[in-house]
Write a structure and sequence with these properties.
The chain has 288 residues and is of the alpha/beta class. It is 16% helix and 49% strand. It has a 21-stranded mixed sheet that branches. A two-stranded parallel sheet has the order 1-8.
Length: 288
């Protein structure tokens, strides 16, 4: 028997064992039964476990730096209630400016959170991997999420770098934000940006707000959608999609070159530099 055949037989055996363990645990008592099977065998996992939280309060900072594997949510006062509801956060006290909350599975190491100087530093560590049979077939992320409740004032700088991370910025203003992701989506709503740079290998970027200065988004694979409060004529644009459509307002760019679709406009006081190797690009003005 060759090595490839042995490999597929081993994979099949692991799958069958996992299926049997899942059936046995579920028959024993549903989700509770799965967790009991996992508790009895350290080579079996029933998932990240129940949600747990770590809270910091009354933190003072002017910039935010985030690294490691975790979702990052940075919000202003107008979105406090929405975020608490969306993430089903059970907090000891109501969030207020300077509150930082990590939401994570009880079986997962929580992120490191601390203020150094005037910078809030967040570290989610490496990817949480489990070597064994995982009985958790849900679509819920096993990665932790950190929610930063910002005061109603402009941040100096936001830096986010991660292998796997979804990033959400909502109802905040900042001088500069730099986001670099290997995989993950970036979404903003009602931001005031003096400068924004996003680089990603796989994931979409949905950007909405008051975009001043230069906004640069470069993706390997993913759609880019930009909505700005300013008139589109106020932007100098350089837009390119190697494999995808481009739409500026009501105008769809139909001119295809050897390198895909592109669009350029000059004379604006702000700048939009948007590029994706595989995906669509759309730019619109927010309806007033």
């Amino acid at each position: 028997m060759n090595k490839l055949a042995k490999f597929f037989i081993a994979c099949g055996a692991v799958f069958v064992i996992g299926l049997v363990m899942f059936a046995a645990g579920f028959a024993k008592g549903g989700v509770d039964g799965l967790e009991k099977v996992a508790a009895d065998h350290d080579w079996v996992s029933a998932g990240p476990g129940a949600l747990a939280t770590v809270e910091l309060h009354d933190q003072e900072f002017e910039s935010i730096e985030s690294t490691g594997v975790m979702d990052v949510v940075i919000v202003g006062p107008d979105s406090y209630e929405k975020i608490v509801s969306d993430y089903h956060i059970e907090m000891a006290v109501e969030p207020k400016p300077g509150t930082v909350v990590a939401v994570h599975g009880s079986n997962i190491q929580p992120p490191n959170m601390k203020v150094e100087g005037k910078t809030l530093k967040l570290n989610g560590g490496e990817e949480n991997e489990f070597e064994g049979i995982n009985l958790d077939f849900s679509s819920d992320s096993v990665y932790p999420a950190v929610i930063v409740f910002c005061p109603d004032q402009e941040l100096d700088q936001i830096k986010i770098s991660s292998v796997f991370s979804d990033v959400e910025l909502r109802d905040i203003s900042f001088k500069q934000a730099d986001i670099r992701l290997n995989a993950g989506d970036v979404e903003t709503a009602n931001i005031v940006s003096q400068g924004l740079t996003i680089e990603g290998d796989s994931g979409d970027a949905e950007i909405s707000g008051e975009l001043k200065g230069q906004t640069e988004i470069k993706l390997e694979a993913g759609d880019i959608e930009v909505e700005t409060k300013d008139a589109l004529k106020n932007y100098t644009m350089k837009i390119k999609s190697s494999a995808g459509d481009i739409k500026i307002g009501e105008k769809e760019i139909a001119e295809e070159t050897a390198e895909g679709y592109s669009y350029t406009s000059d004379g604006g006081k702000y700048t939009l530099l948007l590029e994706t190797e595989m995906g669509d690009i759309e730019v619109n003005r927010i309806e007033q």
